[in-house]
């Protein structure tokens, strides 16, 4: 029975934000791959099938989930789908593209989690795997047979690879008018940069992210793959919109997602700050480039720093009076508005840090909280693992892996683990036999 549009909307809404983020955590780590190395992902609703295919000696992933997902294909290294959403053990899973024998390259990035790679453990729980080799005509035929039922296909093959395999939207819609095809690439399907290789850091650079990130002396990338995540979020939201549109028209459509365009949209504030040829925001390290005081400030007795943010003149006056103990600072001609405070930030920072030097970080935070001034601890990763708010809200769960239980986080928006299907991090090729049986396919086929 075909689902109603209301049912599809309900499924879509219940896909938690973590799906969109983790799905594309590496969506374009290697978007531009060699012609002979191609990947394909399919998501089928209502039975909901997600299939990933990698050409060559690579393993391909197919799985059954009850959710609407976007997945990523990471060049020659890895492919994953995050699917924590679901109601039972047969629904809601991730797919990882693995290499025969050795598995995904990401398994060997490090050994930080009970001998397993940290990146792999993060992205690869809730998984089942299945292999196809698209150089084999038989396997390509199987894939196209499954595509007859597919609702959504997401791919980031090398430019033109999908067309050569007969997997473009133009070709697929001839036998499946409702299919939605989302093509993800570094720079889009046409234009002078169409064939240019695209990795996350390279796109950050092209989109101007590095020009506003880092210190005055040196630009810096972000600590996570933000261009990949941006592309994934726009792929995700466009797919949901396409599903709603299809509910009205019965027709699928093609979605063309560019990492550059996604990142450029997220860069709109600094672009508008540089409107009409004006200079852009200066790199200011961990401080805000245009609002001050807004950034880290050293404390004294324990050597730690506290992040503090003042957003308006009322808060500035309160900070001066109740935290810094000098109400006259609020009317000091050097600091009477944000523009002047930002311009004279070095002088102001010395004043603030001199006061904070008499206190520990905890004491500074206590005074800021009492005064109603926004602040945060400068946590490292151990600080996040031990964060009292995450503990109080019971966000930590146990996740099974081939090396035993490890701690993981509930997806954002989920209140209880019973609301989702959190499955194990798999061993290489663990589910091949079961998935063949699930779709009525034999090894011979």
From TrEMBL:
InterPro entries reported for this sequence: CoA-transferase_III_domain, CoA-Trfase_fam_III, CoA-Trfase_III_dom3_sf, CoA-Trfase_III_dom_1_sf
MF (Gene Ontology): CoA-transferase activity
Annotated signal sequence range: none
Keyword DNA-binding: no
Keyword check for Phosphoprotein: no
A Pfam entry, by short name: CoA_transf_3
Keywords: Transferase
Family affiliation: Belongs to the CoA-transferase III family.
Name of the protein: Uncharacterized protein
Species of origin: Trichoderma asperellum (strain ATCC 204424 / CBS 433.97 / NBRC 101777)
